[in-house]
Amino acid sequence: MSEAAMTQSDIDVAIQLIGMHKWYGEFHVLKDINLTVERGEKIVVCGPSGSGKSTMIRCINRLEEHQQGQIIVDGIELTNDVKKIDEIRREVGMVFQHFNLFPHLTVLENCTLAPIWVRKTPKAEAEEIAMKFLERVKIPEQALKYPGQLSGGQQQRVAIARSLCMNPRIMLFDEPTSALDPEMISEVLDTMISLAEEGMTMICVTHEMGFAKTVADRVIFMDEGEIIEQAPPTEFFENPQSERTQLFLSQILHNG
Amino acid sequence: MAIVKTERHEDLPPPVSQTGVIGWMRENLFSSPLNALLTVVSIYVVWWALSGIISYAFINANFVGETREDCTGTGACWVFIKARFGQNMYGFYPVEERWRVDVGYVLAAIGLFLVLTDYVKNKKWPAIYMFVFVPIVCYFLFYGGSFGLPVVETSQWGGLFLTLVLASVSIFVSLPLGIVLALGRRSSMPIVRMLCVGFIEFVRGVPLITVLFMASVMLPLFLPEGVNFDKLIRALVGMSLFSAAYMAEVVRGGLQAIPKGQMEAAKSLGLGYWQAMGLIILPQALKISIPSIVNTFIGLFKDTTLVLIIGLLDLLSIVKAGTTDKEWVGMATEGYVFVAAVFWVFCFGMSRYSIWLENKLHTGHKR
Amino acid sequence: MTAEAADLEVAKINKFRDPRIRAIFYQIVVIVLFIAFVWYVGHNTAINLEKRGIASGFNFLSQPAGFGIGIVLLMDYSSQTSTHLDVLLIGIINTLAVSISGILLATIIGFIVGVLRLSKNWVVNKIAAVYIEVIRNIPLLVQLMFWYFAVLSVLPLVGDSMSIGNNFFVNNRGVNFPAMIPSTGFWVLPVSLLVAIVASLFIRNWAHKRQDLTGQIFPVFWVSLALIILLPVIASLAMGNPFTMSYPEFGRFSIKGGWSMEPEFLALLLGLSIYTGAFIAEIVRSGINAVSHGQTEAAHSLGLRPSMTTRLVILPQALRVIVPPLTSQYLNLTKNSSLATAIGYADITALFAGTSLNQTGQAIECILITMLFYLSISLLISMFMNWYNKRIALVER
């Protein structure tokens, strides 16, 4: 199985999950996950809570470890090899539900920390890059403020800029708007949409179905640790095939 | 283009090397070469220490006997503790009157059980029993002089009994005193506030020994001719005042955590200051501060040993006196290990209780 | 009653119900009571002092003390001529000596044990936990007496000293080390050490600037360490090793030469460090735990290695939580050094509030001066803490 996967052109395939399983102790949290993400594809992952969606994407940058199966990112297989893990983490950026900005550093320092210490970029150059991305997310004037002084929406945009400063080829979003007040959700979603339009490969775990309809190439539904259904958004929302997908959609769209 | 899964995947057990004992050991003990080395070295050190301790304290030790001659082994001579057990527990309290102390212990134990555990829900009667009835009864029991009981002067009180008396009385006095000081410190009246802050900061800045010296040596000077204070009472005054200052800071922390809105709500319901404090603010503040309060109690319990320095015969002091007894020279290790063990049991027990209490009260706070 | 009279009545009653007037009234009562109390106590004290023929005032400070002291550092002391003021100073020096050494040792022990307590290695973690739980729940005085009476006095007599190598002896009169006795030219050693330290600071500055410009990271720590160790060694060799070693050797009844550390000091140091170290370990552990796990995850997902993550993200945040309770432990250690009285170490409490007090009978002055000393230390530490907290406070809305 692994031979066949590797002979495909590595340049086109960004992420491959092959027969991946994960257990928390005795609990089988991810069951036989098979997923291929091509470069430039935008994937939205949805499903009820506890379905393993966050766990799955956290396995991709090794914040969680899988016990069986293969994860191949950018042609590099993810194992216990620390060098490979570091390589992968440089190429994959992550945005968290609770932002996780470094409170003791300014916004600018948050963004330049990794380029300086990981890619060994000179400070002036790192700051230039950081300002460029802060402008992209439309808050360059906050550069010298501390995270505690910003609103939730601003903090999340800084988090996105911070990840982008490392020039990742893939971006992972773990429920990026779930911790935000409603009026701030759209500013973050807009940023993500513009990122998508530039061709970034994205996997996004979210409940924002509007975003899925606008941007996603594929919507994936997960339940109880398995991928139940994958389809382009129009097909997914108008003609869900599995019963469980239908049930989930009826619950979500009722309230959304 | 849609891909759909129709059958549900079964739940499989995890691979053997990941779970169970082997998986746990791989994860926690041997996850890397350095880790494995650390584990091996640590296990060796633990085994070496434990085997030394067990052979000293149990295998080669003497448990049976009455006198020094019975200490034949190369290990600990626990006979020393046994032989002087009476003094260690009661000091010089007359042997035939020791039942009074035991009765007091039983009464207090019952009270503690009722107040601290969950078996009785309504705490009103247990509280009255424990904080009014038991202290009064114990006073008459221990000191005597009425109801036909002969007097036993406090100079004869000693050992674990004295330690417990010191700790209980100081705790009993320092909590209400600390609350008053904390409220005073937050008062809007500048004079009251200054006096309270001054007292608290002064006491917290000096070692307990100096406070005990002050109580022991200076108190007789402060009082008019003829008024004599028991040495024990002087020590109790010193310890209670000392502990009250620390308690005040703990309560102050709890009070600060209560939102201002609580007092505002109470006032808008028409409650006066003391009513609001007693019914609304203090109960919440104290509940939040319980772990810190228990920690202060544990500290106070350990601090009772300092009375050795002013000549009171608490447990540590009596055991120390035993080690200098002609017959038992050289028993210092056994003596101090024994004292350490007794204190450890009490203090560890209190800290476990505090954790249990905190967990229990936390569930009440969850939304 | 006319309407105006009724108004006046109402006004009068309300004046007293006015909380501000009540507050003033209460405070006047408090002041009066306080002054009365102070006067009462003062009056009694004056009478009692006179009755017992005890002097007052601070003249005694200039009178000769007339007793011997076990450990005297940094000063000359003679039981004939030195005054009580000298005794006070020696006590202060001794207290500071054991407190500062204790603080250093306790911090090292505490940080190591605290980090071990967080280790993923179960055995190491539990060993640290046992250490903390056992030491914290046994009174310090018991531990001190254990170290002094049970451990140190069980050490062999001088004649049978335990030895490590040929130059390091342990017996019941203390520990004996070889000592360095300076001869001409010894000044190069401390000077070169100073030079090394200053050079390290310059290197650190230079390395930072270089990193800002080129992005390259320079191993400042290792280079500084090497400098600080090697420079004095080289300087010493260059000057022909300007010192003689005095090795402890057996005389007829004692060990001569070298430098010895008294058992009282050693027991107090050990007891204080091990006890306070357990508390510091808990502080370190909860400080590091207080940094949310998400910080580590964010740093890792940016590609930062664990060592970088700890240094740049975790430690700065953890230290903010650790330093305040840490300084209060330092204060506790300094106050706890007063337990020296129980094992015969000559700290300020044992000397001044002990022996001097007994000699002169002037309890009030002696105890108050001693308390004043501890209060000053306490004040210094509080001021430092306030300054530190202000400086590193996280900036929020």
Automatic annotation (TrEMBL), chain B:
UniProt keyword annotation of Thylakoid present: no
Transmembrane helix is among the record's keywords: yes
Cell location: Cell inner membrane; Cell membrane
Membrane topology: Multi-pass membrane protein
Key words, A-Z: Cell membrane, Membrane, Transmembrane, Transmembrane helix, Transport
UniProt domain ABC transmembrane type-1: residue ranges: 160-349
Transmembrane stretches, start-end: 34-59, 103-120, 127-145, 157-183, 195-223, 235-255, 304-323, 335-355
Cited Pfam families: BPD_transp_1
Protein family per UniProt: Belongs to the binding-protein-dependent transport system permease family. HisMQ subfamily.
Protein name in UniProt: Amino acid ABC transporter permease
Species for this entry: Sneathiella sedimenti
